[in-house]
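ugh ok fine here u go
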Amino acid sequence: MEDLVVEPGRIIAVLRRRIEELTYENAVLSAAVDQQRDEINDLRGTSSAGDHLG
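structure:
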């Protein structure tokens, strides 16, 4: 079995792409959580600017 040799530049490119994917996924999930929190607050009748934790 031969050793797998990967160029450092390719490793960096793959890691950067994955970081971009994770950043996007995090943004989508964060927006979804904010929307759910807003909907819950609206249902409770307690929606106000003070309810949001940056």
